[in-house]
Amino acid sequence: MSLLTQIISRKVLALFAVASFSALLSSTVNAYGQSPEEIAARIAPIGNVCIAGEECEVASAAVATSDGPRSGEDVYGAFCTACHSIGVAGAPKFGNADDWAPRVAQGMDTLLSHALNGLNAMPARGTCSTCSDEEIESAVTYMVDNSQ
Prior knowledge:
Elements: H1 3-25, H2 36-42, H3 60-63, H4 72-84, H5 97-105, H6 108-117, H7 133-145
Helix pairs in contact: 4-7, 6-7
């Protein structure tokens, strides 16, 4: 086989490999059962920055008035579940009594203080900047009650 034939064969093989890999990546469902549209929705930005003097859309959800405090379950589902469902960075897992026992032993005031002010990798208010103290307390109570 001549050198030119070898080079062409390698390039064709490389092109085939790249095409096969591209087809694999662009399949309609990934290994986790999510379509490209579901992935795009999951990783979409959660906000925009508005600069004074420029046109800016106002997010209706942020401006909307509330009919009262959200339940602990609602707050957990919207803000806490991302970390507490799988134990991100040592977060006590929802429903796991062993994870919660040492924290519960410190008392509800300490748990609430950690939730409001943050602790270790958990940010203050657990990423819910719009939650009232009452809503944070409800979420903590919901997690504790369901983890004993």
